[in-house]
Structure formats: C-alpha cells, structure tokens
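Morning!

This is the sequence you dropped in the shared folder:
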Amino acid sequence: MKRSLMSALIAGVLILGLTQTVRAGAKKDAGSVLSVGATPVPHAELLNLVKADLASQGIELRVVEFTDYVTPNTALIAGDLEANFFQHIPYLASNAEWTAKLVSAFGVHIEPLGLYSSTVTALGSLADGATIAIPNDPSNGGRALLLLQSGGLITLRANAGLEATPQDIAANPKNFRFRELEAAQLPRSLGDVDAAVINGNYALEAGLNPVQDSILLEGADSPYVNIVVVQKGKEADPRIQALSRALRSQKVRDYINATWNGSVVPVF
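The structure's back. Tokens below.
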C-alpha cells in the first residue's frame, strides 16, 4: 500500500510538472506570435517582406488580410489581432470607439490619393455635369474633396475641415455630381462614372499606377500617413517595437521606391 501510494504521489508530481512546463511553453509560444491585419497592397506585401527579419528575432509574424476598412479595427479591439496596418490618423480619429481604444504605434508611408477616369486623360477635359465617385467614409470622403479642391475643380467652405462632405461645397463651377461609394468599390465604378477618387492601395490592387494613370494626385506632403495601430497601452510591446524597426528599415525603403516609383512614399 505504502509503495503504491508513493508511486501515485510521484506520478502526480511528474504530471503536474509536465503540465506546468507545457503551459509555460504554450505561453511562450503565444507571446512570440504577432498577428497583424492588413489590406493586401501595399500593407500585407510589406509585412510579408519583413517576416524573415522578425523570425530571426524569434517572432512569428502572421499576416491576416482584409478587403475593407472597418473589420481590421473591430478585430483589433476584440483582441483577435495584435496590430493592424491599413489606415491613416484622420480615419482612425473618425470613430469614437476606435479613438478611445486604439492608438498609432508608428507611421510607415503615404499612398497618394488620386483621381482616375476611363474616359478622359486630362483634368480640364471633365465635362460640365460630370459624375465623380468619392469614398463614402468621412475621413477619405473629405480627403477626396480636398484633393478636388487642390485641382481647382471645387471650393469648400472655409471651415469644412478634414471630414468635408459634398454639402460643404461652396463653389462648383462645372456642376459636378458626386456619388459616394465604399472605398473598395471605387475602381470598379470607373465604367459607370466620369471619374473616381481612389485610395492608393485600391488603385494598385486594380492595376492602376497612381503616377502614370491618375489625372490628379496628392503631393508627397500629404498628412495622411499610413500607420500601424495597436490597442492603447501596447505601443511598447517588444514585438511591436521589432515590427517598427523592420518596417522602417532601409530594406523596406528601397523596396517601396523600387516597386512603386512614387505611388507609395516612405515617411522614415
């Protein structure tokens, strides 16, 4: 009896020790994984470029691709991601819940917003009454109208701000009409409208070259820097710091410049 009891106790201690070891190993493995949500081009492409750099530091980078601008923030707030990479600060600031729970960790690049058309090749050729499609979210819609104002097509009210809407147009000499669509749908709208203001990543995905194909393009001094976003308080996470070093490296700068030739502009 005593021998059996002693054997059972020893077995119990061994099982407990093994369980604790497995749990510790699982915790360590979980901590070395970094899940980042991103839209495909150029964000996911840049993340995939630095996977090996992070792997050499013991961090497994998992890239989760999204095709819309809402789900990546929802997933980050829910804890399904450690970070996301697809948006700029004005977009992040357009939603009170996002602002309360999320924060920019660092900036990487600018994707100049452009005006595209399948029927005209010059800005001045847009006809009176032409229909122009713009993004329907507040930050990108306002950004689109500011772009059109910079091209002399419209004039906005002085206090319209970054989230201007078509109702804020004070002067519209050529009586343009505006169709507000989800940003991802804008490239496909080109056959149905006279022109469309398209975000850089969606233009690239559609095979458009912003520098060559747009009839109006934002300058490199645009304030809409694309950022890596995390939950508040997670900015100092060593994995996020390692991601910052990797994405803001000379390797990534050279890749951006060689691959997109001005269609994507590094800010570091």
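Headline: The two ends are 72 Å apart (CA to CA).

More detail when I'm at my desk.
O.
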